[in-house]
Amino acid sequence: MKQVLKERLITVNDKTHFGFESIDEDLKTKKVKNVFESVATRYDLMNTLMSGGLHKIWKKYFTQILTIKNNSKILDLASGTGDICIELAKQNKNFKIFHTDINIKMLEQGQIKLVDHGKIIPSLVCDAEKIPFQTNYFDCVTIAFGLRNVTNKRKALAEIFRVLSPGGKLVILEFSKVWSPLTKIYDSFSFNILPKLGKIFAKDQKSYQYLVESIRMHPDQKTLKTMMENEGFEKTSFLNLSGGIVAIHQGYKF
Ligand SMILES: C[S@@+](CC[C@H](N)C(=O)[O-])C[C@H]1O[C@@H](n2cnc3c(N)ncnc32)[C@H](O)[C@@H]1O
Fold this sequence. Notes:
Blueprint: H1 2-13, E1 15-18, E2 21-24, H2 25-39, H3 43-51, H4 54-64, E3 73-77, H5 83-90, E4 96-101, H6 104-116, E5 123-125, E6 138-144, H7 153-163, E7 164-175, H8 183-201, H9 205-217, H10 221-230, E8 234-241, E9 246-252
Parallel strand pairs: 3-4, 3-6, 4-5, 6-7
Antiparallel strand pairs: 1-2, 7-9, 8-9
Helix pairs in contact: 3-8, 4-5, 8-9
The chain binds S-adenosylmethionine (SAM).
């Protein structure tokens, strides 16, 4: 009984971060939903403006180093407007890809884009913390710029581990900790320019302030690798791109 009460208390009081703010977990989920509902129609344009087009190169590279066999079943989590799904489908390896996200507005934008690219891929609402698929189902799970926004990353990693089949792998593309000589210029650009770009082009400064802050609160390369290992992933590794502005983490379920 005592244990049950303790667990309840922990659940009720669990805190997390929304950018630099410390808030209850439930509230973070709602706030992240508001961010992506607000930016959905301008999401792709903003990505290109903020990264100077680099995000397309990172995503292409990310999908090219996946090296998964033909006919693999791939779950792309937090897919948003579907860039990763499109890149995977372009490989013509007869992958069975699922375009998923917790946010319907982002999925709608993604589905329009998938159709524009002539890709027939199912879109479905899916919370990375509660994946609606059976255990041992996927050969590969991808998540690009999504994990940072998930409220409880530990739960999401455990769920991803569950739905992967033995031998399957998780591949994460996410902002990470930049190489220290770049920190000053990177911080200055991020804190001074990005929210202003958000104000001008997406009419939403706050969401882009959240973006900048959420990157700083995300676990660094080594911490994320350890978090993956804690949930059972093996042969984990990471690769920095663009001086660690982003990193690709991989891990296997055996
Ligand atoms: C920055 S976007 C990334 C979209 C896309 N993967 C890309 O690389 O352009 C982050 C996405 O994570 C989604 N998201 C946030 N929390 C989530 C969760 N718990 N489960 C699934 N998706 C989530 C948001 O709705 C949003 O579409």
